[in-house]
Write a structure and sequence with these properties.
The chain has 71 residues and is mainly α. The protein is built from 2 helices and 2 strands; from the N terminus they run αββα. It is elongated and about 75 Å long.
Length: 71
């Protein structure tokens, strides 16, 4: 009986971990897209999207943005 309870708990924890991992991966894709969009702007002369130079965020800044997004 204890063995089956242990397996059930393990499966539950594994499912929760998988959900967190999937959610984190989706969040990381959103953050990456936001950062990519910040690197382009519309030119006033030709109406084309052009790259602009921006300071790349540090790992710490990226982490802070992820934490803010999860609150």
């Amino acid at each position: 009986m204890n063995y089956s309870d242990g397996l059930s708990n393990y499966k539950k924890e594994l499912d929760e971990y998988r959900e967190r991992t999937d959610r984190d991966a989706a969040h990381n894709r959103i953050v990456a897209r936001r950062l990519e969009n910040k690197k382009r702007t519309k030119c006033h002369h030709c109406d084309q999207m052009t790259e602009i130079k921006v300071k790349e965020p540090t790992l710490w800044e990226s982490h802070e943005e992820m934490v803010k997004g999860s609150l």
